[in-house]
Fold these 2 entries.
Entry 1:
Amino acid sequence: MAAITVKPSIPKGTRDFGPAEMTRRNYIFDTIRKVFRRYGYQPIETPAMENLSTLLGKYGDEGDKLLFKILNSGDFLSSAGGPLPANPEKAALMISEKGLRYDLTVPFARYVVQHQSELTFPFKRFQIQPVWRADRPQKGRYREFYQCDVDVVGTNSLLCEVELVQIAADVFKALGINVCLKINNRKILAGMAEAIGAPDKMMDITVAIDKLDKIGLDNVNEELRADGLSDEQVEALQPILGLAGGKEEKLAGLEKILTSEVGKKGIEEVRTLFGYIDALGVDIKTELDLTLARGLNYYTGAIFEVKALDTEIGSISGGGRYDNLTGIFGLDGLSGVGISFGADRIYDVMTRLDLFPSEANAATDVLVANFGGDDEMYSLKVLARLRAEGLSGEIYPEPAKMKKQMGYADKRGIRFVVLCGENERLAQSVTIKDMAAGEQKTVSIDEAIAIIKG
Amino acid sequence: MAAITVKPSIPKGTRDFGPAEMTRRNYIFDTIRKVFRRYGYQPIETPAMENLSTLLGKYGDEGDKLLFKILNSGDFLSSAGGPLPANPEKAALMISEKGLRYDLTVPFARYVVQHQSELTFPFKRFQIQPVWRADRPQKGRYREFYQCDVDVVGTNSLLCEVELVQIAADVFKALGINVCLKINNRKILAGMAEAIGAPDKMMDITVAIDKLDKIGLDNVNEELRADGLSDEQVEALQPILGLAGGKEEKLAGLEKILTSEVGKKGIEEVRTLFGYIDALGVDIKTELDLTLARGLNYYTGAIFEVKALDTEIGSISGGGRYDNLTGIFGLDGLSGVGISFGADRIYDVMTRLDLFPSEANAATDVLVANFGGDDEMYSLKVLARLRAEGLSGEIYPEPAKMKKQMGYADKRGIRFVVLCGENERLAQSVTIKDMAAGEQKTVSIDEAIAIIKG
């Protein structure tokens, strides 16, 4: 192995996580996982690599380009079955048959179809795994990031929507993040398109009004006209876009405008969902946001989005109901609903607002100093006792100068240092130093354990 | 999205993990993680993708071929800088600059060098992540599998070796697996090569005797001769290969044969390590195995391997000391030692010997039956109480027939079903059915909680 003198690096858009970040990230994952379990969801994991036939065509043309493709092993050129065409997408398919997963939803749909005979429906699963996207790296956007998805498939019951709202409430309460959960319904969006006589423009209208917050009403109207809506249709949409007030006012306003069956159904679903939330006293701020569409084509009922309130980081969670996700893999008639928690965004919010509790701390409980010689074995036995009591502890591996050993404890953020020199060994005691208080005293091992446990 | 009628599948050598497997796997990971933490090791994670410049040349020519390479994004053919040569390895490098990690050791070395200014040495880290190898898939060998590595770098102290033995003892005791930890030392292997006058053949000798268990003494001798050892040299090696008895007998035998400085140092290191293990009473069966080499070129001192005793699965853990791993990335002089736990092998051993405890069970604690109508809200409120008590619980999402709801609880392995019908609602009580015992009774909510908590 020849020495390389260039400082090593990692691919752009990817990250290393050191101990401090890991501990905070695990605090988030553990909190989310605990809530998922409390609601009866069960963990699954799928492979990082999926067949490209599973992934392609599921995320639109843009998504296909953002898939990381794995080069076939071995003599990939000979097995390509012919010379590579200049078109990179066609050429890629001749030398690559696997790709890294782009999200957890399509692998979940594939999983449900592949394992349908083993599963009990309704099937409630959660999945916490990284996904990969060849996006242009930018601040806060990565090419490898974790998703935390929770979904139930195999039932149309609105109780599932209620449960997801409860889960969001529990997760963000446990994390200490002040949020607003925005709710909309795709059927209301469809009802709007029908109400203005443009049912075939539902997607365009949805995409345009999804941008209302970002680009403002005038630009949305312009985009709607560019999409082929007549001035009359754009005009007819204004009362809907302008609906203000609380959910009751908005629903009352919608009831006057949406007269189609699907529109009425959407209003009813939203009313039912809010009714459950109120009756159960679910502890989360909610809002009916008629401009919420989340761009995703596959939602068919409820649409959710969670925003952090005390900082400008935006959406930290979102989801909705999809009626036929497994249909793309040949299994029709399974309705599902789910919500995804964005671990990176949540991490950023908690860091910015200083919300991590002191437990989310990577430090070891205690360092046993190393005096070498005869004292070493006594130190090792003391350390074994501390560990047997459930404390995390380490011994400095060499009998270095005390200043160096103390410096190590300090840099590592280890609060207690236990010293076992000759006097302590002969008395079967220890001297314990509290690095935070700067105090030390000589006590029995049991007393030291009590002090460290606080 | 057109419907696909072919049943979806996953790439060969990869696996889906369903709820039951996940819970058992997490039991293993959690047990290992808890021990690592108790010994003061801290978690890190590195990206799935590394630059190929980081990975290539680190695992030998065969390893280079087994790397999964990621096709460059965009117009990879135009940016290849010329027509692709017929040689697949050269061609791959023109259209691929990233690969999936092959193990956790090289990314760790890269991490240490890249982040050296932020780290406190000795640096004790653990890492539990999947790795990918384009191996020919076969029974028990996968293309995606988890490694659980624990290493300390930045000290030569043998206390680290002792600590790794303690960690292995704690892990396998906690998992209930009866094991033997085999120990050898690369310096002893070097001393053997010197003792027979073939110091330049140390690697060949090591590789050959590593196979002693598998292919037998005669075949090993033949391989040694094929490697260029003279008959006299092979003959001179026989007393070493034939050393029998306990560690004391073997060490005494070695002391007569190994006279070089490195050989003596190896014997001294092994004696010291066993001395610590005995004095601390580390609770694990150990053995000095002079044929243990573990094929890996980078070990320079202690070599470890753990075998499960009660089943024929073979090695479930292994590691050793490497003196200059970070040298390949330009940072010399950092000695490290580590051990890796094979989660898949451990899973197989525990499954075969039926060692998973009943806690390693994916089931939800309780299902609340759904009677619909007025009873539904009462059921939801009871469920919220159960969850607030830390129980995992779910409501059947539809007011289906009781037989169907009971069948769901049964298939999911949910032991308790709580029924909240009109009588219970009016009395603010619940009827609880123990699916295991087949009994049911009507009790207060508090009593039900006590029953479920057992």
Entry 2:
Amino acid sequence: MSTNILIDKILEKKNPTVAGLDPLCDYLPQSMIAGDSPAEKADAIFRFNKDLIDALYDIVPAVKPQLAYYEILGHEGYKAFCKTVDYAKSKGLYVIADGKRNDIGSTASAYSKGFFGIIDSDALTVNAYLGFDGVEPFLVDGKAIYILVKTSNKGSGELQDLVLENGKKVYEHMGDLVSAWGEKSIGSHGYSDVGAVVGATYPAMLTELRERLPHTFFLVPGYGAQGGGAKDVVGAFKNGIGAVINSSRGIMCAYKAQGLPAEKFAEAARIEAIRMRDEIMSEI
Amino acid sequence: MSTNILIDKILEKKNPTVAGLDPLCDYLPQSMIAGDSPAEKADAIFRFNKDLIDALYDIVPAVKPQLAYYEILGHEGYKAFCKTVDYAKSKGLYVIADGKRNDIGSTASAYSKGFFGIIDSDALTVNAYLGFDGVEPFLVDGKAIYILVKTSNKGSGELQDLVLENGKKVYEHMGDLVSAWGEKSIGSHGYSDVGAVVGATYPAMLTELRERLPHTFFLVPGYGAQGGGAKDVVGAFKNGIGAVINSSRGIMCAYKAQGLPAEKFAEAARIEAIRMRDEIMSEI
């Protein structure tokens, strides 16, 4: 009942947000980066993450490192990802690995053993274009997944909004599959361990999907740098729960909006995380 | 014109197959694995790959390491993946990184810089559920991608075979998008750098898609261990080109089918790769 644990943390901290850890080297104070090698850059992004986690762990319930920003540095970056997961967990944070992994069953099983084994993340984002046999290996007791339903990007409608002959849109059909796949893992808060990714940039669809999928917990990207605000994510909640809202660049790069030097990234991130929490809590 | 280079290698070696490098530790001679740590296991799978590459590089044009089988060992596994790509390239092999990566544009750009930068693979598999803005960052001069169209697994129809209101199936629509996205990168052999993954396990659809997408090169999984045979992949070709057929377990674990001890994996793999080549070449 992994989602239940996340909801407990959200209720305890009175904060339904997740801090995205997508540490492009450009975002860091350049003084943190000792040199140009992948090892030096990877070391810097881990220390950047560690400082962010130290500044945020008592106010946010969860972090979401995005694999791409680690794989961009090859295996040294991947090591920084693994260290980030470990450090976040040591501070009591719930960790969502954002990898959007997907494959046929035997291969999905290898991914599952990676992200829910040697890397002990609590949840993983998954792309279900392959159907249920590519999803089933990720249904692991005590772990959760978030399946892409309606993504936050501008072009998401190109496939996801197409209408099927039965009148459903592709993303609605995907949502219904996600709901069915989660039926066996609904916890005491009423939400299953098979969640959905639904973008804050499509608030009307977010509201519709909340009604349509009452037991599906939502991971909502698109707040902040991508344009979504607190009013856009209200529809993801019912009775104050139902979703966790991600902000990555908005928190990591808060120093820019606050007119501070990059060295102040951690304090600025804390200020922004508190502002975001209060803004969202005042709406839901 | 990355696909053109792959086709040149295929024509030169008279072999349209790619050897999948999905090295589960269970497949290895246990004597190769010095101990239980991820580093020891990762070292063993790299040496296993190296021996396979040494046994195959003069007869197969390409290899396809599948990321999941490296990520299962965390960052040590990822390092073995990177070393495998480097070693395969040093032997003149074309390398398809099978990661099925996907994300919004800014994040897809980070993946692209990873797999087509610090990791210098020639091609990457991509899942296009997010639409074109998630695909565009992978369109890099001199590199190719393979987008999931109709996958080889049993449940692939759950989403991919659904019929849209315009009468097209989802996988046909995806195929048409792939074809359009490749229009600007068609090389002298007539195929673009935006390829499609189409499973050998659905031979009729493979044949239909070949007709429908005349300029789209196919990466065809599902031969061998997944059940497809040479007759099933014939439809992927036109005038002797048009596809590269993958075999992973069939080649890596050929020693089992040949009744040999695991220590003979490399010789057995070579025998199977030659048999597979001859079988496919006799059909197309």
